[in-house]
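This part of the workshop introduces the protein records we will be handling. Getting from the letters to the tokens is the skill we practise here. An example says more than a description, so a record of this kind follows:
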Amino acid sequence: MKIEVEKPSIQHIEAARTEKQPDELSDVPAFDKHQEHKLIRKVDLRLLPILGALYSIALIDRTNISNARVAGMDEDLELSVGNRYTTALVVFFIGYFIFEIPSNIILRKVGSANWLSAIAFAWGLVMLGQGFVKDWRSLAVCRAFLGLFESGFFPGCAYLITCWHVRYDVQKRLAAFYLTSVFVGGLANILAYGLMQMEGLGGLRGWQWIFIIEGLLTIVTSIVAWWLIMDFPDKAAEKKFLTPAEATFIQERIEIDRGDAEPDPLTWPKFFNNLKDFKLWVFALMFMSTVMPAYAFAYFTPTILRGMGYSAGASNALSAPPACAAFFTSMAFAWVGDKYRIRAPVIAIQALICLTGLMIVAYHHNDGVRYFGIFLGTTSCQGNIPAILAYQSNNIRMQSKRAVGSGLQIGFGAVGGIIASTVFREQDAPKYVNGLWTTAGLQFFILLMVSGMTVYFITNNRKVDNGTIKKPIEGQPGFKFTL
């Protein structure tokens, strides 16, 4: 259903300018439509590629353990004994969950370039160290530190992107940022296959070279990122990325759209008050439920393919096409969501597609059809990640709440990672039917939650239209929920 809240455009900004007092008019720049589009494109080209590149590396670094496993690490570190592999997966998410919100608070204080590049450099060093571990315990320790340092990157990027764009532009941007990483992450399976061919070089195994080369790539990219990552809109003019007039215009668009262009300090009372909003917990649980299959496919697709009879190299190579396809299908859904200003239908459709794919992988007897099921499951769950991020972003206000909301939401993504790591048990390999059913149950949960939120949003929007609502939604008169 289309919401009757107009997307802020140059006409809206010009109208807003007429309402300002004479002494305020000089602070609001005049841009025509062409200049507006050019400015937004300038922001996108500076903001999205470097964040997408770094998060591509982050996804590769956290999931390449599955590539290393089939490349010989399983035998060398005896990961198949008991729950060793599961332990190495789970410990990543402990620090990842705990430090999401604190990281967003630090990000605002020290600056996005300083913080995001620093934590990327740190996890690059950890990745490099993983190439020299001698037993599974050392691997688990490295994975724990990897989760600690990576914890701040995704919520920081989501927070930063949503602070730059208006509500009905944001899903395409979040999708472009996130799905670029998924696409590159898919190609990383092919890279891992190539690095496996370095077996024996320098006295090192192929799986060690996977960690070493990809760790060095992270370190180099993090150094470059320090020069390229830009800060929040209110600091853009200070960093000389935008002129004062351009920075003011960007903030004016956001102010008209949702009234939170100016940063509000995140205090402890605000922090706990924000946590009382049940919507944040619903969005977080929905995010957990779509991230879980994303991790499951990333960690276990090579193993499932090996169970179909493919070699280790072929299993890694065949893991790439579903992830690459996710970029195109998910961008299409994101375009529809932004164009028609809808969120819930996009989420529900992709959850249903994911359900279909999971059942095919679990029960079909033809391996080719099961591989198609992996395509369906991977593309749809990956597409729902930016969709659910945008769902939350569109329906909350104030930067302090965004900092808490994105940290909580993506922190629950870590819970999804823990579930994926534990329900796909060694004794269920290579079909993992129990794990696939757990994943399917979470897709039903998404459908239930999105249905409930739709009813709640429609009810409150009607109250706004009728003038019967007791308090303005999100504290802003005229604000309506995005369905």
